[in-house]
Specification:
This protein is an alpha+beta fold. It has one domain. It is built from six helices and five strands, in the order H-H-H-H-E-E-H-E-E-E-H. The strands form two sheets. Strands 3-4-5 form a three-stranded antiparallel sheet, with helices on one face. A two-stranded antiparallel sheet has the order 1-2. Strand 1 and strand 2 form a beta hairpin. Helix 4 packs antiparallel against helix 5. The longest helix is centred in the N-terminal third of the chain and has 19 residues. It starts with a helix and ends with a helix.
């Protein structure tokens, strides 16, 4: 995972975890709305959903070309525009940020735009009683993966980052 992308995911994790720990319901609602997930009442379901795309790293191969994972990172870092139709549009005059990334103020809304415009339309999110989350994602290669995780906590991002 590129260091700038990893650093900004850490910042997003810290920010979302901080909101949840502080029980800042107004800000949590705003962040959920950024991702079009405002209907999720349980914060652990929300963190599971927005952490799911990190699994795209596992599908990256040498022959993947410009994989979904790198498109996500480039969008989050502000060098690629999110696209509902998968068009890869580079931001004109954009420079790739250094290892420090762009910061949560830019990374969070950029990631949310990629999530709602590119990832979410290809997902079916099902939230069963007792916080059991089921997410099925149909990737461009038509492979389906399913995740079932009972009772996740708000730091799901951090656990996923350890594995990428």
């Amino acid at each position: 995972m590129p260091q700038n992308c990893s650093r900004d995911f850490e910042r997003i994790v810290d920010y979302v975890d901080g909101l949840i720990a502080a029980n800042n319901t107004a800000e949590i609602s705003k962040v959920k709305a950024l991702f079009r997930l405002e209907g999720l009442t349980h914060d652990d379901d929300f963190t599971a959903a927005i952490g799911w795309p990190l699994g795209e790293w596992q599908g990256t191969q040498f022959f993947s070309n410009y994989s979904t994972f790198y498109q996500m990172c480039d969008t989050m870092e502000g060098v690629r525009m999110p696209s509902a139709n998968g068009t890869n549009l580079r931001v004109s005059n954009a420079t790739v940020p250094g290892v420090g990334g762009v910061g949560v103020e830019k990374a969070l809304p950029n990631y949310a735009a990629w999530f709602r415009n590119e990832f979410l339309p290809s997902c079916e999110l099902i939230f069963a009683p007792e916080h059991e989350t089921s997410i099925t994602h149909t990737s461009p290669s038509s492979l389906q993966r399913q995740l079932r995780v009972p009772g996740l906590v708000g730091s799901v991002f951090r656990r996923l980052l350890r594995h990428v």
